[in-house]
Amino acid sequence: MTSSCPVELRVSCRHLLDRDTLNKSDPCVLLLMQSQGQWVEVDRSEVIKSNLNPVFAKIFTVDYYFEEVQKLRFEVYDSHGQAGVGTHDDDFLGGMECTVGQIVAQKRVTKPLFLKYGKFAGKSTITVSDAGLGVPLLRLAPSSLFQDLFSKSDPFLEIYRIDDDSSEQLVYRTEVVKNNLSPIWEPFKVSLNSLCSCEEKRKLRCVVWDYDSRGKHDFIGEFFTTFEEMQKAMGENKVQWECMNPKYKIKKRNYKNSGVVVLLDLKIHRVYSFLDYIMGGCQIHFTVAIDFTASNGDPRNSCSLHYINPYQPNEYLKALVAVGEICQDYDSDKKFSALGFGARIPPKYEVSHDFAINFNPDNDECEGIQGVVESYQSCLPKIQLYGPTNVAPIITKVARVAADEERTKEASQYFILLILTDGVVTDMADTREAIVRASYLPMSIIIVGVGNADFTDMQILDGDDGILRSPRGEPVLRDIVQFVPFRDFKNASPTALAKCVLAEVPKQVVEYYSYKAFPPRCPQPHTPDSSLGSPQ
What we know:
The protein folds into 3 domains: 5-130, Immunoglobulin-like; 136-270, Sandwich (Immunoglobulin-like); 275-516, von Willebrand factor, type A domain (Rossmann fold, 3-Layer(aba) Sandwich), CATH 3.40.50. The protein contains 11 helices and 27 strands. It has helices at 100-106, 192-196, 227-230, 246-251, 274-279, 315-327, 368-379, 392-406, 428-438, 494-502, 505-516; strands at residues 5-14, 27-35, 38-44, 60-64, 71-78, 91-99, 108-114, 120-133, 138-140, 142-145, 155-162, 168-173, 188-190, 203-210, 218-226, 239-242, 260-263, 283-291, 335-341, 343-345, 350-352, 355-356, 365-367, 384-385, 413-421, 443-449, 481-485. Strand 7 and strand 8 form a beta hairpin. Residues 1-113, 120-242 form the C2 domain. Keywords: Calcium, Metal-binding, Repeat.
């Protein structure tokens, strides 16, 4: 069953083109998602007045599906405010395309902005980063009292996370409370990941501004805190900070502060999701295992399931590419293990049930999905298709690597084994035993039946109709096997197969790490594209 998770995205730009004559551009971002070949608007940000390096407070939320390639397009416009952003009255400042999977896996994507016809928009760049998780973790309700001798202010508050390289990342911007020296801002939700990168002692900078409609906001004051300190506001307690203006502190002899900011309430709700683990740096390692038994037919014959048609990929290649293209976004080195079974291999032409199709016993990894495809095609003329259809050795081989990973006691790597076979496995008892053992490890198994064989007995391995047990009666700890016949998707798009076989993986990942009580790792520090300054 397909399920989604909300992903929250934050956007900032640098060095935007200046299209205005008197002032700087007033940028706004439109988010579009590709649906059935068409770009459909999802949402748009606020307009930031007179700013060529905007950091947008708007959080874009999209439903994330692990099993799909979801293409996004971000378009930046200089808004003139007459008829809505993106109209012919607004100036196009540039666009960028990426996938949701890339943002989730990399946590931060920075790319140049392009104008029409592939032309660079000067030095303009756009950065899209995950704003944290879609689960409410904090609920903050700040209030303040500011003293202004001349008039009332229009205050708003910004919270910045200070990263390891001393750069600042905007976490949240409150609404503006008009004409008020004692504003109470609306409660808001922000994730622990976004607020402090899961580090309670990480320093936070909070800045209060007096809003100006032209974008030239007046600095009221600032204070520094940590999430550790914020937690004192839980229960009936309140936490308060003096809001300081360093210039006033130097110039004014009797200066105390520019007001006090009070944290009225804080609530924490911790729920680990698949996104928590991926954003925490968990890598998905993809291994493909290909059936080279004689029942596939002579690869030189056009009737063979392994026949290489120069104009159309065979079923093995279609299944491999459909699933592999999804998984590759979650593996940073883009290297995939590719194995074969059921063939006689050189130099002695003995039957092997777990050989590297690149014939490198020390390193079975290929460069990207294309590397797997090329190794598969060059492997066929060098081997003799034989038998039987034994898959337990390959499951055991991948399980050994997964067991090594388990011993690290970290949620750092999860393994997906894709087995492509043209018939029912011969070593069913050993396969059941191997699957039960693997269910205790960080791995999932996808089996795609290629060709027109009767795969009824293969349904035993898929626990959807009951609990799979070893020959000794031991049940699997988790349901980790998904079996589908490729013929059910023969007339569907390649994405349909990937959706079906990968839809259960997020649940399987969470089940494993929950059972082991392994929390997500804290995201590794990344190098931001630039420091974030004060609003212009």
